[in-house]
Specification:
Distance between the termini: 29 Å
Helix content: 25-40%
Bound molecules: 2'-O-acetyl adenosine-5-diphosphoribose
Number of strands: 9
Length: 262
């Protein structure tokens, strides 16, 4: 009988435009805690206030002091882990699927930069990237070292707008450049590979629903059931770092030598 990995691999190879959607679960095996479920940060600390961005706008100086200077609580823990985390086999498997021409684009909700570190190039970081800063007025992004913190909040060298971390806060609109890419890629996709996301936070949670509504396939990789499980064609239960390399091996074995799916 066909295994779930084989079914998932067959679906992927039969699809024209596979897009990945990853969440915190893909980085758990890199030592980064998820938000929800067992071991989750919000499970331990509770969800942060939903109006984080409005609080930042009301007092950007305090935001800078708390985020980048004093740092305490879950944020301290999370940022310290980001700084040392390395990609795990799941990140490398997704980068290899891109290299093979099988995965056309990757939308990640993670800010940890690990997909890029593993070699993925076509990546949309819908919630930003912890290693960058962003101007809230013109949207320019900067490396941390490019912006002087002599006065806080720092201001944009291009337009004078206030600069914050690139990570998207609760209550903050998704930057329009990234949102456009995510929507375009979703609209082209006839198969979405969901890895390690509870699919709880919108707009990202809406992308798989959109693919399904247009008759596309959904494959999920997660040790536990998620809100999207009932809509998935195949649910691969287990750790992403163990399942995805098996999926890549199956796909590579089916592709002819030297062949990519493009
Ligand atoms: P969640 O923490 O909500 O969900 C993580 C998912 O990963 C769960 O379904 C877990 O079962 C699964 N998981 C745990 N270990 C895994 C493993 N080894 N392999 C595969 N899956 C595993 O994380 P997200 O869905 O990413 O937003 O959360 C979405 C957004 O909520 C985040 O981007 C963040 C948060 O608030 C912002 O920071 C703006």
């Amino acid at each position: 009988m066909e295994s779930d990995i084989e079914r998932a691999g067959r679906l992927i190879l039969a699809s024209k435009y596979v897009v990945g959607l990853t969440g915190a679960g893909v980085s758990v095996e890199s030592g980064i805690r998820p938000f929800r479920g067992p071991g989750g940060l919000w499970t331990e600390y509770g969800e942060p206030p939903m109006d984080g961005y409005q609080r930042f706008l009301a007092n950007p100086k305090e935001y800078w002091e708390e985020r980048f200077i004093k740092r305490s609580g879950y944020r301290k823990q999370l940022y310290e882990t980001f700084e040392v985390a390395k990609p795990n086999p799941a990140h490398y498997a997704l980068a290899e699927l891109e290299e093979l021409g099988v995965l056309r684009y990757l939308i990640t909700q993670n800010v940890d930069n690990l997909h890029r570190a593993a070699g993925s190039k076509k990546v949309a970081e819908i919630h930003g990237n912890f290693s960058k800063l962003r101007c809230i007025q013109c949207g320019s992004r900067y490396g941390r070292e490019e912006i002087s913190l002599e006065t806080i909040p720092p201001h944009c060298p291009r337009c004078g707008g206030i600069i914050k971390g690139d990570g998207v806060m609760f209550g903050e609109p998704i930057p329009s450049d990234i949102l456009r890419i995510c929507e375009e890629e979703t609209s082209k996709s006839d198969c979405m590979l969901l890895v390690g996301t509870s699919a709880f936070v919108y707009p990202a949670a809406g992308f798989p629903q959109e693919v399904k509504r247009r008759g596309g396939a959904l494959i999920e990789v997660d040790p536990y059931e998620t809100g999207l499980t009932p809509f998935c064609d195949v649910s691969l239960r287990g750790k992403a770092g163990e399942i995805l390399p098996q999926l890549v091996d199956y796909i590579k074995a089916k592709l002819q030598p030297g062949e990519s799916s493009t």
